[in-house]
UniProtKB/TrEMBL annotation:
Official protein name in the record: DUF3794 domain-containing protein
Organism annotation: Blautia ammoniilytica
Pfam family, one: SipL
SUPFAM superfamilies with a match to the protein in the record: LysM domain
Residue span(s) of domain LysM: 469-512
Length: 516
C-alpha cells in the first residue's frame, strides 16, 4: 500500500568537542617600545589561521593577541603594545570526515598580564574552543494513503522544519571624522569596538541587520606636547546579507561572533590624519526554520483486507516559544584610594558571561555576571590614566510558558546599553540593559509509519463475531477505533445511530452492524 509523504528537515548534532588552551608565557618587551612603568589596561582577541577537518579530528592553528596599554617608566607617557602568542590544538570529533562543516567558537576565559620588571611581562590566559559539527536529517512524514476503500486515522502536528542552514559573514565598515576642536591624530594608542543592539531579521531572499557600533579611540595628537586625546562614537548601521531561500515569515536562530575588528587612521581631503575607519567582520551561523502543519497518518484499516502498519518512533521538533527578554542591571562600584580621585571618565566596556542556566516553572533562569572595564582620568598630570575592573552579578528569569525538562533552548545574551556615571569622585554608578533572547523547541515524539503490509482478512475470526451488536464506548476510544475493531466504517456508525458527527463519549451506546 503506497503512502503519500511530506519531508521535514531536522538538524542533528553529529559531533561536538570542547578544549582549553592555557597560556603562561614570559614576554620580553620589544626594543622599540619604552620601558613599562605601570600597566593601565589589557584586552585580548583570538584570530584563526587555519581550521582543517580530518577523519575524526579538527586541527586548529591560531593566535592570542594580547593588547596592553601602559605608562612608560620615563616621562609618564602612555604607550601600547601587542603580544602575539601562537597556538595549535587538535579536537577529537568522533564520526566526522573531511568535507563536514564545523562551527568553531572561542572565548577568552581569563587574561591577566603582570609586570615582572620594566622589560618583561608575564601573560596568563585561558582560551576555550567549542566545536560543533551538525548534519541535516530529512524525515518523511506519512500524510495520506494512495488507495480507495481505506480508512485513515490522522493527527494534526505542528512542526519546525529547517529551511536554511549555512555560514556567512556580515561586514560593518564606517568612517568617523574627529571634531575640529581636537588635534590631528599623531599615534593611535588604543581602541575598543563593540556591536550593540544587533537585530537580525529574515526578509525575502535576504537577512537585514541593524545595530550600533560603539567605538572608543585613545591617541596622542600631533600638536605641541603630543597631548593625550580620546573620542567616542555610537554609529548606527543597517546592512543586508544575501540569503537564498530566506523568507520573511521564517523563524531565525542565528549565532554571531566577531571574526575580525580593526580601527585605522586615514587622511582627510586636506591630507590631515583626522579620519578613523572602523571595520568589523561578524561570522553568522544561520539556521532559519518554517512552521508547518502536517496531517500525520497514525493508522490505517480496510473492511476488505488487513492492514499492518510498520515504522519507528522519531523525535521531531516544534516551536514552544520565542522571547526577547531584557534584564536591567544597576550597581555602584568603589574606586580604590590608591588610584586617585576620578576627574573624568574616558570609556567603559562591558561583557556578559552566562555561568548557569536551568529550567524553572514556565521559564528559564539565567545566572551570570556583567564584566566591566572603565578607563578614566585622575588629577595627576604625570600619571593621568587609570583603569578599574568590576563585576556585577545578575539573575534573571526569561518567561517561557509550558517549558519542561526535555525541551531544548538556545539562549543568546548581548549588551544592549551601558551607562557609566560618576556618583562622586570615588564611586561610579553603572546602569546596563542586557538582552536575553531565547528560542525554545519542544520535542514531538511520534510513530512514523514507513510502510503498510497487506494481508487477507481472517474470515473465521470475522464470521465468529456478531453481525449486529450494541457497544458501550470505553474511555480513550474514538469512533475510528471502534469502526476498525468491528469491521465497519465511521460513516456507517453515524448513519445507523443518527449522529451529527463522529464525536463519542465514554459509556455512550452505539448500534454496530458488521459490513464484512
Amino acid at each position: 500500500m503506497e503512502l503519500r509523504k511530506e519531508s521535514v528537515q531536522m538538524l542533528r548534532i553529529k559531533s561536538k568537542a570542547t578544549s582549553q588552551v592555557t597560556f603562561d608565557v614570559d614576554y620580553n618587551v620589544p626594543d622599540v617600545k619604552p620601558d613599562i612603568g605601570r600597566m593601565i589596561q589589557s584586552k585580548g582577541e583570538v584570530s584563526m589561521d587555519e581550521v582543517r577537518l580530518g577523519e575524526g579530528k579538527a586541527f586548529i592553528k591560531g593566535n592570542l593577541l594580547a593588547d596592553m596599554l601602559y605608562v612608560g617608566e620615563e616621562a609618564g607617557k602612555v604607550h601600547s603594545l601587542t603580544a602575539k602568542l601562537s597556538f595549535e590544538e587538535t579536537l577529537n570529533l568522533e564520526g566526522i570526515v573531511s568535507g563536514d562543516k564545523i562551527c568553531l567558537k572561542w572565548e577568552i576565559e581569563d587574561l591577566s598580564i603582570h609586570v615582572i620588571h620594566s622589560r618583561k611581562l608575564n601573560i596568563k590566559a585561558i582560551v576555550t574552543l567549542r566545536a560543533v559539527v551538525d548534519e541535516m536529517k530529512g524525515i518523511l512524514i506519512p500524510v495520506d494513503v494512495c488507495e480507495e476503500n481505506v480508512s485513515v486515522k490522522k493527527k494534526k502536528i505542528h512542526l519546525m522544519s529547517l529551511m536554511v542552514h549555512k555560514k556567512d559573514t556580515l561586514r560593518i565598515k564606517d568612517e568617523m571624522t574627529i571634531s575640529s576642536n581636537k588635534p590631528n591624530i599623531g599615534n593611535l594608542l588604543w581602541h575598543t569596538i563593540s556591536v550593540r543592539g544587533l537585530d537580525l531579521r529574515p526578509e525575502n531572499h535576504l537577512l537585514r541587520a541593524r545595530g550600533e557600533l560603539a567605538v572608543f579611540a585613545l591617541y596622542t595628537g600631533d600638536d605641541e606636547g603630543n597631548t593625550l586625546q580620546w573620542v567616542e562614537y555610537a554609529l548606527p548601521f543597517e546592512r543586508e546579507v544575501e540569503c537564498s531561500g530566506c523568507q520573511e515569515e521564517m523563524i531565525p536562530n542565528i549565532e554571531t561572533w566577531v571574526m575580525h575588528q580593526s580601527l585605522e587612521v586615514k587622511p582627510d581631503a586636506d591630507g590631515e590624519e583626522r579620519i578613523l575607519v572602523a571595520d568589523v567582520v561578524l561570522e553568522l551561523d544561520l539556521k532559519l526554520y518554517r512552521e508547518e502543519d502536517h496531517q500525520l497518518v497514525q493508522d490505517v484499516y480496510s473492511p476488505l483486507k488487513e492492514c499492518i502498519s510498520q515504522g519507528k518512533t522519531e523525535t521531531l521538533e516544534g516551536l514552544l516559544v520565542r522571547n526577547f527578554s531584557k534584564c536591567r542591571v544597576t550597581d555602584r562600584i568603589q574606586v580604590k584610594e590608591t588610584q586617585g580621585k576620578i576627574l573624568q571618565l574616558c570609556s567603559s566596556q562591558g561583557t556578559i558571561k552566562i555561568d548557569k542556566t536551568k529550567i524553572v516553572e514556565n521559564g528559564i533562569q539565567a545566572e551570570g555576571i556583567l564584566l566591566l572595564k572603565v578607563l578614566y582620568v585622575v588629577g595627576n598630570d604625570e600619571m593621568p590614566l587609570y583603569s578599574m575592573e568590576g563585576m556585577i552579578p545578575f539573575t534573571h528569569v526569561i518567561e517561557a510558558q509550558g517549558i519542561r525538562e526535555g525541551c531544548s533552548y538556545y539562549l543568546q545574551a548581548e549588551l544592549e546599553q551601558l551607562s557609566t556615571m560618576m556618583a562622586d569622585s570615588n564611586e561610579l554608578e553603572i546602569r546596563a540593559v542586557l538582552g536575553l533572547n531565547v528560542l525554545v523547541q519542544q520535542p514531538v515524539e511520534e510513530l512514523i509509519i514507513d510502510r503498510i503490509q497487506e494481508k487477507p482478512l481472517d474470515m473465521a475470526k470475522i464470521q465468529s463475531m456478531a453481525g449486529i451488536t450494541v457497544y458501550m464506548v470505553k474511555p480513550g476510544e474514538s469512533m475510528w477505533d471502534i469502526a476498525k475493531k468491528f469491521y465497519t466504517t465511521k460513516e456507517e456508525i453515524i448513519r445507523m445511530n443518527e449522529l451529527a458527527d463522529d464525536l463519542v463519549t465514554p459509556g455512550q451506546p452505539l448500534l454496530l452492524v458488521k459490513k464484512v
